[in-house]
Design brief:
Layout lengths: L1 E3 L6 E5 L7 E5 L4 E3 L10 H4 L5 H18 L5 E5 L2 E6 L5 H8 L9 E8 L2 E7 L12 E5 L2 E3 L2 H10 L12 E7 L4 E2 L10 E2 L2 H17 L5 E2 L8 E2 L28
Parallel strand pairs: 9-11
Antiparallel strand pairs: 1-2, 1-4, 2-3, 5-6, 7-8, 8-11, 9-10, 12-13, 14-15
Protein name: DNA mismatch repair protein MutL
Keywords: DNA damage, DNA repair
Family: Belongs to the DNA mismatch repair MutL/HexB family.
């Protein structure tokens, strides 16, 4: 790895080979950081045999880098695999612009932003695809908290439930949501790879995220259209929350009893 911060006269280089102690030195380079990985796990064949194909591992790396970029839209990110530039993501001013760069088909025309409070010490902002677009998997649901990507089946289920009357079974929206949380209300050290986090009240957060998306969907023009992959037209009309019809429209919606299924 070589890196140089803005304003520094020179860069630094760090090299690690086969688990040996790192070698640290100086490097002449422009401001920025380059990380190069070769022959991963060549000295640990037991781990290497669990690697997928180069194409699959490259896709997983690409998805991970895209999430880093969405968490920090101001960076200039280039991914090179086997000497070929797979993608370049330019620095952009905000999350909606970065999300459109990563998901141009889903978050282009018709996409809409949403933002609001997720509870005490928590702010949610994001961008979501219109009901006229959907995917066959949940890879387009990206969750970020305080500048780091994470996974949550509970929050994914809240997002899916907001679209429950608009997408056919087995279809998913594309949603990028960034949560700005008081660090005292979120624990990022509950998973070895930091993929999962624990919130002080995740159920309330799920309800708030679902409510924000539901309200933003209601504010969109009510038109009829065909969701990609659907078998018939899907009217863009959101039903009133089930249960007490006298409840205010802004009240949280009921959620499924079980949230443990695979998203």
């Amino acid at each position: 790895m070589t890196t140089r911060a803005l304003g520094e006269p020179h860069g630094d280089a760090v090299s690690v080979e086969g688990g040996s102690p790192p070698t640290i030195g100086s490097a002449a380079r422009a401001p920025g950081t380059t990380v190069e990985v070769r022959d991963l796990f060549y000295r640990t064949p037991a781990r290497r045999k669990f690697l997928r194909t180069p194409a699959s591992e490259g896709l997983r790396t690409l998805q991970m880098l895209q999430r880093v970029y969405l968490a920090h839209p101001g960076i200039d990110l280039t991914f090179v695999q086997d000497g070929e530039v797979r993608f370049r993501l330019p620095p952009l001013p905000d999350l909606p612009a970065a999300a459109r760069e990563v998901f141009p088909d889903a978050l282009g025309e018709g996409a809409f932003p949403f933002q609001g409070s997720g509870g005490p010490g928590l702010w949610i902002e994001g961008v979501a695809s219109p009901p006229s677009f959907s995917r066959g998997n949940a890879d387009g649901i990206v969750l970020l908290v305080n500048g780091r990507p994470f996974s949550s089946r509970s929050l994914q289920e809240g997002i899916r439930y907001a679209y429950r009357e608009l997408l056919p079974r087995g279809r998913y929206p594309v949603v990028v949501a960034h949560l700005r949380a008081d660090p005292s209300r979120v624990d990022v050290n509950v998973h070895p790879t930091k993929r999962e986090v624990r919130f002080e009240d995740e159920a309330a957060l799920r309800d708030a995220l679902q409510h924000l998306l539901h309200g933003a969907l209601r504010d969109q023009p009510r038109t009829s259209g065909l969701s990609q992959g659907a078998s018939g037209p899907l009217p863009f009309v959101l039903p009133e929350p089930s249960g007490d019809r006298s409840r205010a429209r802004g009240a949280p919606l009921p959620l499924p009893l079980s949230l443990g299924g695979t998203a």
